[in-house]
Structures are given as structure tokens and as C-alpha cells.
Amino acid sequence: MTSFYLSTPYEPPQAPFKLPLDEPWALFGEISPNQFMARYWHKKPLLVRGAVPAFKLSSSQGALLDSPIPAKELLKFALLDEVESRLVRSKPWSFESGPFFKKQIPNIEKPNWTMLFQGMEAHHPAAAKILSWFRFIPDARLDDLMVSIAGVGGGVGPHFDSYDVFLIQMSGRRRWRISEQQDLSLNPHLPLKILQNFKPEQEWILEPGDMLYLPPHVAHDGVALDAGCQTWSVGFRSPSFKELLQEGLWRLAESLEDIPELENKFADPKQKATHFAEQLPDELIKQLKLKLQDLKLDRIDSFLPGITAYLSEPKQQAIFSPPATPCSAEEFKKMLQSQMLIPHPQTRILSLGKKVYCNGENMCEEQDLPSVKAWQILAGRKQLKAKNLKNLENSTLFEAYLAGWLIFHD
Description:
There is one protein chain. By secondary structure, the chain is of the alpha+beta class. It folds into three domains: 229 residues, Cupin (Jelly Rolls), CATH 2.60.120; 69 residues; 81 residues, CATH 3.40.366.30. The chain is built from ten helices and 18 strands. The strands form five sheets. It has an eight-stranded antiparallel beta sheet. It has a three-stranded antiparallel beta sheet with strand order 10-9-12, with no helix packed on it. It has a three-stranded antiparallel beta sheet with strand order 15-16-17, sandwiched between helices. Helix 5 crosses helix 7. The two termini are 37 Å apart.
């Protein structure tokens, strides 16, 4: 692309709060999100030409659109501690983690390298807007948006992911080969997770604006055909049942601290003499069973709060800074009437019924009804303006603002 540095960056629009789930979308090749979920999600790959129509429309008018984050701007993120970046080279394969020094960043015209930037929705508004397009899929499933930039021949080798992924071509061209093969064994002699016996079954060249959706465990290999090739990957987390239950049980155990009657000692005045002293006594088992029933620990409802709290935790590398000049509770109340309060880009918010969890904490506990309603709006719309809030000195909304979890957007 000779006009690479002269082209205009694409500006992705913010999706509306209420997405039209039954209407055809260009993003999915003129089928609706409901149809996409029924036919393709977690089932089979989907290639969409012109998924982002602005690229093809601009090209037909003699203009070129660049990625929303042009190459020069994107590569600067590799210098930052707070951005998770990786550099992969092929011929031979090598792998390095950032942050990097400027001299370590490859020249855009050099071949056989790829730089990956994880969680870019927390660092650039364009990436956050792209994610808003996919909010017809539950927030609990969303992982992050990764941006890759590569020289000609760059890639990470044939591999598979254990999660769903949307691969959106944003700059240059990339050749994708995929296979639904059963053999997913990895080459043990390489520093990356590269398939040992990749046998491609389908092949396409994606141009800017095209998108490829892949369900879990579909083998794929993407190779850049142009200098500065950018692919934006929207990935979805897929925790194991073991992980979810362990986290739910751990938080459930912590919650038992708040139940005073559990401090009572086990007593067995009805215990009889026994010839089987080595056996756990029936009376202990009986009383524990009754206790579990009383606490409803045999029901899924007991586990869900802990699991929701876990899934709402931010990434480990997330950094939150309190406002430089924090306002008082009264000033906060006034600002809520005129400005939009939004989650910090690295904040995660999930709901369980009427309860809202933010960064691993239940924000509705011991809150008045207006504050609970405010959190519910914030969870659903990712933004809040409010006029009727009172007693903000003790509000978790104000506390989250002071912690840097929520910020005002002009």
C-alpha cells in the first residue's frame, strides 16, 4: 500500500445501547446477530467480505482508510509498561515480551515479524468502540481486543485457540489458512504453541474491512502479505468448570465468616457406643447435611455471587489511579447531573439479577435504592447521568470514583 502513511485512519462508531438483534448486519454478511449465534457461534467458521463497509466504500471513492491506530502510533505502545506486548519472529521462531526499547522495535519494512498488543480496549478508544459492536454476546464471555501488526511474512505460526475469536483485517492483507483437523498436537521443540501437523483445508486472503470468525479449536495460520499488516482480534474467555467452581467455593467459604451461628460447636449427646470408631460418625454427617440445607449451600444460587465476582475482576496488569484532584461527595453529585460517568477502560462490571459487581466487589450491598438503580444503569449502558442520588458520602458509586474505577467523560 503505497499510501500507507497518507491514508486517513478509520474511526469506528460506538454501537447503540440497544442493538438491533433481528436486523441484518454488514458485520455478519447481512445476517442478524440472532442468526449468527444460531448458525455459527461455537459451531463453524464464517468469512465476511466487507464486514466493515467503510473500507470498501472509501476505496471505491478513490480514498484509502488506514487502521484506527496507524502503525507509528501503535508501535509506541510497545514502549509502555502498562501495555502487554509481545514480539514474535519467524525464520527462526523466537518470542519476547515487552515493554521494549525503541531500538528493539522492528522496522515496518522488515519481513518475518509480528508484534502483538493485548487488551487494547483499555488503551485506545477506537478499540473500545469496536468491542461495543459485540455486546450482543454476554460481557462475562468477553476477554479483550488484541491488535497485531506485522512485516511481510509475519505471523505466529499455525495454532488453535480454546475460545471464539473474530479476526478483523484493519490494514494491509493477510492470508488465512484454516483446518478443522482433529490432530491438535504441538511441536515440542519450538518456543511458541505451534501445531506439529497443520493440514490446511481452506484458504483466503483478507483485505481491510474483511472479517473471519473462528470457533474454538479450529486450527489457523495467518501470514501478513503487506508491510504494516494489522489484524484486530476480538477474543472471548472460556474458563474451565474447575476454575469457576474453585473461585465460587473460595468466595463462598469467605462469606461464612459473616454467619455467627456457625461459630457454635458440634455436639453429639445422642452418640452411642460403637465398634467402628474409625468411621466418620453418622451424627456429624447428619448435622452437616442439615447445616448445608439451612445455608442453601446445595443450590447453585449460593455459588453464583462468587462466580460473578470472579468474572468481574479486572486483568492482573490493570492499574487504577485515583483522580488527581478528587471532588467532594457534594461536588460529585453535581457533576453527575451534567457529565457522563463511565467505567475506567480496565474496569469490569457484571450483573447477577439486580446485584452489580465491579472489579470483583458487590457494589449493591447495603446501598439505598437510587444507588442500586444507578449501578444497574451503569452496568447495562456503561454510562450514567443521575439527578436523584443522595447520601453519596456512603455510596459505593462515590467510592468507585475515588478508587479510579469510574471516571467522568466530558
